[in-house]
Amino acid sequence: MFEQAVQVSEAFRQSADQMQGSLHMALKGCPECKTTQMIASPTLGICEECGSDLVVLTRE
Ligand SMILES: [Zn+2]
To answer: Where does the source fall among the domains of life (predicted)?
Structure first.
């Protein structure tokens, strides 16, 4: 029982690491307004303020 619990938590930790990796690509922003927002759809769309194409932001 205990060993099983350890394996499950290990698998959970690994999947959490992978999720953190994908989060680095989960922000989009407007290069003109410098605004950022979460990517919630497959398409980036355009800025609501100025109409510029939104770009994917990567964190350093
Ligand atoms: Zn804009």
So the answer is: Bacteria
